[in-house]
Write a structure and sequence with these properties.
With 80 residues, the protein is α+β, with helices and mostly antiparallel strands. It has one domain. The chain is built from three helices and three strands. It has a three-stranded antiparallel β-sheet with strand order 2-1-3, sandwiched between helices. A hairpin with a 4-residue loop joins strand 1 and strand 2. The radius of gyration is 13 Å and the shape is globular. The two termini are 13 Å apart.
Length: 80
Amino acid sequence: MPGLLEQQLDRDDRLYEQFGKPLETTHQGEFVAISTDGRVIVGRDDIEVLKQAITLFGSGNFAFRRIGSQTLGKWRRAGS
């Protein structure tokens, strides 16, 4: 059974695939925060996008990515 971190990473991947990937043609290299209900915030300043996302969606209630960037790997817990 996956742990909480793995569940959140899977959720974030699904949110990006559904709501972030379509932005790749028009917002390549910008940052996106995607709420669990599909609302998005897009911008060039990562800190500003994060601040807005925390204010509007609440901490932990959104995925955050650079649009079009490949992830190099997944976060893992110590010992896994």
